[in-house]
Predict the structure of CpXC domain-containing protein.
Amino acid sequence: MSLNKKQSLPCPKCGQLTDTTIWNVITVKDSPDLKKDLLRGKVNFFVCSSCGYRALMPNAILYHDEDKKLLFSFSPCNSPVKTQELFDKVCENAEQSGELKKLEGYNLRFITNINDLMEKIVIFDLGLNDKVIEVLKVMILSKEPDKAQHRDCRLGKRDGDKLEFMIRDTEEKQIYTCSVPVSTYETIYKNVMQSGVKPYSFNWELVDNFYASRIMNGFNNIK
Ligand SMILES: [Zn+2]
């Protein structure tokens, strides 16, 4: 069941009180429209009714897609150190609470960036796996290694037999697109799975570019 609370909050810019609905739990089965809103960047954003100031609320969201066996734990956080601390705690709690037994075959993801959350929903909606997509993204960015530091890459969409990635360069202030044949994705999928990586989780996983680099160095998530 999707859960929310309503809060009246003052705008940080102009002070106007604005009613905001904050979602803590999103269950896709009961709330398909809410999922659509989330993908449109409309969930848990404060939008001032007077000056239009817009900001993401600092609240956590648990996203559950029963049919696709996805459980995403989203905790907004900008600091890599804090992210690692939060992640370690989530993994420890999961082992102690016994919740993992009920989540067999699930993909469990710990996510701290709202754009990553949206991207992962899109990835699994397209029937793809984010571990393989992260490897592909590292490969795309490594084509120009001197620029990789100020670039990020996201899956945009699937267009026929091509996957379209968007590369945002924060220094050049440009957005580039990069098309990758689906057959390339499939080859990498096969290689990643052959190396022992499972397309499901044994505990919460933080699947990002660092995770992809570890896969490329022989890491797998076999329990
Ligand atoms: Zn305002």
The chain has a mean pLDDT of 95. The chain has one domain: 60-216. Residues 60-216 form one domain. The chain is about 30% helix and 30% strand.
